[in-house]
Fold this protein.
Amino acid sequence: MTFDAIGIAGTALTVHRKWLDATADNLANVNTAKPTTGPAFQARYVQAVEGAGNSGVYVAGTTLGDEQGRLVHDPTNPLADEAGYVRMPDMDLSSQMSSLIMAQRGYQANAAVVDRAKTTYEAALQIGK
Protein backbone atom coordinates (compact mmCIF):
# COMPACT_ATOMS: atom_id res chain seq x y z
CA MET A 1 0.00 0.00 0.00
CA THR A 2 2.85 2.41 0.80
CA PHE A 3 4.48 1.78 -2.56
CA ASP A 4 1.14 2.49 -4.22
CA ALA A 5 0.96 5.86 -2.45
CA ILE A 6 4.47 6.77 -3.56
CA GLY A 7 3.79 5.70 -7.14
CA ILE A 8 0.46 7.48 -7.43
CA ALA A 9 1.78 10.67 -5.85
CA GLY A 10 4.78 10.42 -8.17
CA THR A 11 2.53 10.44 -11.23
CA ALA A 12 0.73 13.48 -9.85
CA LEU A 13 4.08 15.22 -9.27
CA THR A 14 4.88 14.74 -12.96
CA VAL A 15 1.52 16.16 -14.04
CA HIS A 16 1.86 19.17 -11.74
CA ARG A 17 5.44 19.80 -12.91
CA LYS A 18 4.32 19.85 -16.54
CA TRP A 19 1.40 22.10 -15.58
CA LEU A 20 3.85 24.45 -13.85
CA ASP A 21 6.11 24.46 -16.92
CA ALA A 22 3.21 25.28 -19.27
CA THR A 23 1.89 28.02 -17.00
CA ALA A 24 5.34 29.55 -16.57
CA ASP A 25 5.69 29.64 -20.37
CA ASN A 26 2.26 31.29 -20.64
CA LEU A 27 3.19 33.89 -18.03
CA ALA A 28 6.45 34.65 -19.78
CA ASN A 29 4.53 35.37 -22.99
CA VAL A 30 1.42 37.11 -21.63
CA ASN A 31 2.56 40.40 -23.18
CA THR A 32 4.18 39.02 -26.33
CA ALA A 33 3.16 41.11 -29.31
CA LYS A 34 3.14 39.63 -32.80
CA PRO A 35 2.48 41.19 -36.19
CA THR A 36 -1.15 41.09 -37.33
CA THR A 37 -0.10 39.01 -40.34
CA GLY A 38 0.71 35.98 -38.16
CA PRO A 39 -0.80 34.08 -35.24
CA ALA A 40 -0.65 35.31 -31.66
CA PHE A 41 1.26 33.40 -28.99
CA GLN A 42 -0.88 30.39 -28.10
CA ALA A 43 -1.18 29.53 -24.43
CA ARG A 44 -0.53 25.87 -23.53
CA TYR A 45 -2.93 23.97 -21.29
CA VAL A 46 -2.05 20.53 -19.90
CA GLN A 47 -4.67 17.80 -20.24
CA ALA A 48 -4.46 15.13 -17.52
CA VAL A 49 -6.22 11.76 -17.50
CA GLU A 50 -6.76 9.20 -14.77
CA GLY A 51 -4.84 5.97 -15.22
CA ALA A 52 -6.43 2.54 -15.11
CA GLY A 53 -7.27 1.31 -11.63
CA ASN A 54 -5.13 2.93 -8.96
CA SER A 55 -2.24 3.82 -11.23
CA GLY A 56 -2.40 7.61 -10.83
CA VAL A 57 -2.75 10.39 -13.37
CA TYR A 58 -0.94 11.08 -16.60
CA VAL A 59 -0.53 13.88 -19.10
CA ALA A 60 -2.66 13.05 -22.13
CA GLY A 61 -1.32 16.02 -24.05
CA THR A 62 -1.62 19.76 -24.28
CA THR A 63 -4.11 22.00 -25.96
CA LEU A 64 -3.31 25.38 -27.36
CA GLY A 65 -5.17 28.63 -26.90
CA ASP A 66 -6.67 30.77 -29.63
CA GLU A 67 -4.16 31.71 -32.33
CA GLN A 68 -6.27 34.72 -33.32
CA GLY A 69 -5.52 36.39 -30.00
CA ARG A 70 -6.74 39.94 -29.71
CA LEU A 71 -5.86 43.03 -31.66
CA VAL A 72 -4.39 45.87 -29.61
CA HIS A 73 -3.80 49.38 -30.87
CA ASP A 74 -0.15 50.15 -30.14
CA PRO A 75 1.27 52.37 -32.87
CA THR A 76 4.59 52.74 -31.02
CA ASN A 77 5.29 49.00 -31.23
CA PRO A 78 7.79 48.18 -34.00
CA LEU A 79 5.64 45.17 -34.99
CA ALA A 80 2.52 47.31 -35.51
CA ASP A 81 0.84 47.28 -38.91
CA GLU A 82 0.04 50.43 -40.88
CA ALA A 83 -3.08 50.98 -38.77
CA GLY A 84 -1.05 50.68 -35.53
CA TYR A 85 -2.32 47.24 -34.41
CA VAL A 86 -0.44 44.23 -33.02
CA ARG A 87 -1.71 40.77 -32.17
CA MET A 88 -1.59 39.85 -28.46
CA PRO A 89 -2.31 36.48 -26.79
CA ASP A 90 -5.88 35.90 -25.68
CA MET A 91 -5.05 35.26 -22.01
CA ASP A 92 -4.79 37.38 -18.93
CA LEU A 93 -2.27 37.58 -16.14
CA SER A 94 -4.75 36.91 -13.32
CA SER A 95 -6.01 33.57 -14.70
CA GLN A 96 -2.45 32.42 -15.40
CA MET A 97 -1.34 33.38 -11.87
CA SER A 98 -4.30 31.47 -10.43
CA SER A 99 -3.33 28.46 -12.51
CA LEU A 100 0.26 28.75 -11.33
CA ILE A 101 -0.80 28.80 -7.67
CA MET A 102 -3.07 25.76 -8.11
CA ALA A 103 -0.33 23.78 -9.85
CA GLN A 104 2.19 24.80 -7.19
CA ARG A 105 -0.09 23.75 -4.33
CA GLY A 106 -0.88 20.44 -6.02
CA TYR A 107 2.82 19.77 -6.44
CA GLN A 108 3.48 20.60 -2.77
CA ALA A 109 0.65 18.36 -1.59
CA ASN A 110 1.85 15.38 -3.61
CA ALA A 111 5.45 15.92 -2.50
CA ALA A 112 4.18 15.79 1.10
CA VAL A 113 2.38 12.49 0.35
CA VAL A 114 5.63 10.99 -0.99
CA ASP A 115 7.52 12.21 2.09
CA ARG A 116 4.94 10.84 4.55
CA ALA A 117 4.74 7.50 2.75
CA LYS A 118 8.53 7.23 2.84
CA THR A 119 8.54 8.01 6.57
CA THR A 120 5.86 5.36 7.16
CA TYR A 121 7.85 2.79 5.18
CA GLU A 122 11.02 3.59 7.12
CA ALA A 123 9.13 3.24 10.42
CA ALA A 124 7.80 -0.15 9.32
CA LEU A 125 11.36 -1.28 8.57
CA GLN A 126 12.44 -0.24 12.07
CA ILE A 127 9.71 -2.40 13.62
CA GLY A 128 11.21 -5.47 11.95
CA LYS A 129 14.64 -4.96 13.53
Notes: The chain has two helices and four strands.
